[in-house]
Amino acid sequence: MSETWIILGATSSMARAFIRDLAQQGARLLLAGRDMADLGALAQDCRLRGAAAAEAIAFDARKPKGFGAIIDRVAQFDGTLNAAVFVGSMPDQAEIDADPGLIDGTITDSFTGPARFLQMLAPVMEARGKGVIVGVGSVAGDRGRIGNYVYGAAKAGFATYLSGLRNRMGRKGVHVMTVKPGPVDTAMTWGLGRMPFMTDPETVSRDILKGVRKRRNVVYTAGIWRIVMAVIRSIPEPIFKKLSV
C-alpha cells in the first residue's frame, strides 16, 4: 500500500481500531494527538503489525499554532495522502448547564479545531488530485436532543462543514466521507450503561474501510442508525420537544 494516513485523535478507541486495520494493510501512518508517550507506543505497535512506517506527532485541536508543522510533515510524504479525524469531546450536558464555559472547548474539539486543520490540509491534497478525508461525527448531530445538544451542535456543524468540503474537494479528485457512529463502547460512553444498538470500535473501523472502498458520502455505524435517525428527524417539533430522547 503506497498510502499515507494522517490520523487526528489517534489514541481514541475508534481510532486505534482503525489504525490497527491500516497497519495490517501496510499503510504509512502519522499518528497525531496530545499524549506523545501513548502515541509512541502505538506507533511501535503499528510497525510490528506491518505498517510501512509509523510515527507520532503532537496535535491539540485547541492549539492551532501547531497545525502548520503537521501540514509541513505530511507534505513530505510521496504518493496518496489520506486523513481521518477522530477528535472530539463530550462533557455531560449537566456539566455544561452548570458551567457554560465548557461550550467553547467542546465546539473547538469537535468542530472548529478539526475543520481549521482540514482547511489547511485541503490545498496539499488538491494539488495531488487524489486521496480520502474521513471525518468522524456522530448521530447526535442529526437533531438537537435534550441530553447532549451542545455536543450535537458541534457535530452538526462539523457534518455541514464536511458536506461543503466534499463538494469542493470532489472537483479535484479527493473524496470526503462523513461517518456518523451511534453509541460506541469507548471511554466516552463509560458510565452511561448499555445503550440500544451500541457497537464497538472494531465494527466502526470495518464500516469506515468499507465506506472508503465504495466511496460513500455518509456512513452510519452501526447501519441501523440511518433508519433510527431518519425516524427521529421526522418527528414534528411540537411532539419532539416533549420527548426525552
Structure description:
- With 245 residues, this protein is α/β, with parallel strands linked by helices.
- It has helices at residues 13-24, 36-49, 67-75, 93-98, 102-128, 149-170, 201-214, 224-234, 237-240; strands at 3-8, 28-33, 53-58, 80-85, 132-136, 175-181, 218-221.
- 40% of the residues are buried.
- Helix 1 runs parallel beside helix 2 (36-49).
- A 7-stranded parallel β-sheet has the order 3-2-1-4-5-6-7, sandwiched between helices.
- The protein is globular, with a radius of gyration of 18 Å.
- The chain has 9 helices and 7 strands.
- The chain has one domain: Rossmann fold (3-Layer(aba) Sandwich).
- Helix 2 (36-49) links the parallel strand 2 and strand 3.
Report Rg. Answer: 18 Å
In the CATH scheme, the class would be Alpha Beta
The total of beta strands comes to 7
Strand/helix succession: EHEHEHEHHEHEHEHH
Assign a percent range to the helix content: 40-55%
| CATH topology title | Rossmann fold
Number of domains: 1
Give the structure's gist in a few sentences:
With 245 residues, the protein is α/β, with parallel strands linked by helices. It has helices at residues 13-24, 36-49, 67-75, 93-98, 102-128, 149-170, 201-214, 224-234, 237-240; strands spanning 3-8, 28-33, 53-58, 80-85, 132-136, 175-181, 218-221. The protein is built from nine helices and seven strands; from the N terminus they run βαβαβαβααβαβαβαα.
Architecture blueprint of SSEs:
Layout: E1 3-8, H1 13-24, E2 28-33, H2 36-49, E3 53-58, H3 67-75, E4 80-85, H4 93-98, H5 102-128, E5 132-136, H6 149-170, E6 175-181, H7 201-214, E7 218-221, H8 224-234, H9 237-240
Parallel strand pairs: 1-2, 1-4, 2-3, 4-5, 5-6, 6-7
